[in-house]
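Researcher: Sequence recovery benchmark, item below. Answer with residues only.
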């Protein structure tokens, strides 16, 4: 099964009722579920079927969960494994987390949380296993990789920089505007490094509130703050021996930066609320669309941390500065779309190409890919004509500008919701509030695109895997009216 097919999840649990419930809850049009009742059966399936993620119970009839996890790691050290545990066996789960497990959940399982974790695990599996390569690494017709496309001198400098720094165990700062492909460059560095068989984890510093970010990175002890009912192993501990990619690091707060600086200097830290010093061996790759020198001068970013991160810097040029690559990128995206969605579209008419070449592309490669998807859907034959392009490229509508989003949920309603949750003693308040907002946004967007996940993910700016995970969490149904959604996305 190639990487464009549905993802595979392996469930290893000896309780038939639990196994059945998990399979029925998680099986979907994008996820195939395999099951095993013993550790040995599960280990053999990992070896033979190469799943994208594993759910592993720690109490199995033939082997301890930790021993089973170690066997799985020996077969594939990059495979995300979610541990299921009863309250009495959390120490085993924590030990597995220290050795690189993706996450652990307590029984009885919260299916909403599990569905979200499985979506994230499958996405992580793609990041770890699918090569991110430069244009010179593999033949152009190899669609089993995520390709960095470009032949201009500025892109060749990027390729040379990746080749120079990948084998060296030093931090790398990747700079470039939004949508230029910073994550692909980070993955290429990882996959050409000596840590390529060790874990690769990614975290977006701008997408996580400050208090939660510190816990995500460094972990926390039980009782460290309200709601910390158990020890949590952070990303730096999970990625021991491997690589951690910190995206949008310019948004990391001044309170968190000193702890990251110490880790870069000494490779040690303390969990939030703890006194035990944890030692780790992690290579840090960071990315930003901000000018960190200006941020440091303004006091928003620590000078000493910036110097540590800038041991080696790679600058990715914006698309407007390498317009010669545009035909290559267009051909690349058309090939991917034809492979994924099955409709043959092979070229772009000259008048349409002139419009593409004249546009400034403020959203860079990501915006170009979105425009080509739109044109692909609109095309009636094998050639994309000018009328297939989005309106703003044809001059029929103003160029989109960043605008303040007006929420349909009034601030007072959200405030009252939070206050009510606090009064009732609820936990996981952040998840409950964001679920309300997600439901409003996702329902509105899905109605607008008549149920097309492909178009909805484009408008939302998230991958289809993330969208599907959110839809499962919220129990939203989708009508598929425009595109077949039986396979995995190119996102």
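Model:
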């Amino acid at each position: 099964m190639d990487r464009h097919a549905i993802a595979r999840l392996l469930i290893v649990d000896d309780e038939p009722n639990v196994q059945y419930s998990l399979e029925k809850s998680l099986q979907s049009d994008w996820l195939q579920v395999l099951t095993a009742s013993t550790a040995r059966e599960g280990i053999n399936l990992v070896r033979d079927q190469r799943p994208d993620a594993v759910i592993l119970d720690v109490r199995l009839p033939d082997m301890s969960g930790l021993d089973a996890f170690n066997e799985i790691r020996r077969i594939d050290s990059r495979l995300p494994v979610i541990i299921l545990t009863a309250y009495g066996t959390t120490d085993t789960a924590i030990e597995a987390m220290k050795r690189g497990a993706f996450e652990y959940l307590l029984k009885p399982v919260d299916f909403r949380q599990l569905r979200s974790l499985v979506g994230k695990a499958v996405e992580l599996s793609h990041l770890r296993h699918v090569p991110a390569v430069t244009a010179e690494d593999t033949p152009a017709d190899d669609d089993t990789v995520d390709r960095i496309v470009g032949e201009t001198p500025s892109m060749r400098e990027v390729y040379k920089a990746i080749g120079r720094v990948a084998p060296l165990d030093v931090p790398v700062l990747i700079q470039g505007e939004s949508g230029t492909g910073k994550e692909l460059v980070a993955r290429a560095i990882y996959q050409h490094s000596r840590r390529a068989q060790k874990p690769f984890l990614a975290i977006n510093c701008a997408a996580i509130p400050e208090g939660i970010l510190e816990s995500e990175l460094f972990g926390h002890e039980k009782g460290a703050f309200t709601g910390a009912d158990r020890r949590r192993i952070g990303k730096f501990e999970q990625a021991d021996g491997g690589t951690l990619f910190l995206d949008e690091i310019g948004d990391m707060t001044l309170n968190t930066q000193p702890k990251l600086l110490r880790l870069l200097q000494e490779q040690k830290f303390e969990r939030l609320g703890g006194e035990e010093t944890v030692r780790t061996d992690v290579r840090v790759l960071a990315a930003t669309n901000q000018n960190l020198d200006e941020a440091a001068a303004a006091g928003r970013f620590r000078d000493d941390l910036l110097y540590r991160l800038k041991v080696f810097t790679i600058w990715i040029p914006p698309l407007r500065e390498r317009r010669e690559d545009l035909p290559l990128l267009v051909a690349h995206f058309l090939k991917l779309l034809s492979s994924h969605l099955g409709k043959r579209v092979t070229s772009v008419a000259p008048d349409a190409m002139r419009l593409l070449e004249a546009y400034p592309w403020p959203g860079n490669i990501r915006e170009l890919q979105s425009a080509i998807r739109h044109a692909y859907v609109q095309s009636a034959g094998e050639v994309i004509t000018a009328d297939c392009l989005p309106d703003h490229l044809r001059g029929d509508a103003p160029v989109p500008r960043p605008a303040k989003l007006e929420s349909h949920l009034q601030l007072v309603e959200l405030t009252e919701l939070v206050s009510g949750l606090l009064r009732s003693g609820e936990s996981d308040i952040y998840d409950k509030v964001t679920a309300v907002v997600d439901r409003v946004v996702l329902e509105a967007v899905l109605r607008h695109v008549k149920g097309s996940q492909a178009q909805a993910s484009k408008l939302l700016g998230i991958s289809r895997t993330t969208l599907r995970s959110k839809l499962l969490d919220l129990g939203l149904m989708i009508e598929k009216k425009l595109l077949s959604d039986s396979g995995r996305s190119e996102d």
